[in-house]
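Students often ask why we bother encoding 3D structure as a string. The short answer is that it lets us treat folding as translation between two languages. Here is a chain of 87 residues written in the first language.
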Amino acid sequence: MNHRHRKVLQGVFAHPVSANLHVPDVTAMLGELGAELDHSHGGRLQIHLNGQALTLTHPNHSLTPDQVRQVRKLLESAGIDPAAYPA
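And here it is in the second language, the structure alphabet:
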């Protein structure tokens, strides 16, 4: 995982929740972790990672804090530990 992807991963797990994570950066990081991404009709983004699934409805240019929390929960459920990927 490259430095940029590690920074995005750290941003997902940052406190307070970041509202400045761009959708393309997050999807690239998820892809690097092995997630299957599907941009379906209606602006939905479906993410499948290690048996876990998440659908984000209408992700715009940046993720909302609630969407960041959902991605964080998906990563935690999939067994991704940000400490294993130091920035």
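Translate back mentally: The chain has one domain: 3-79. Keep this in mind for the problem set.
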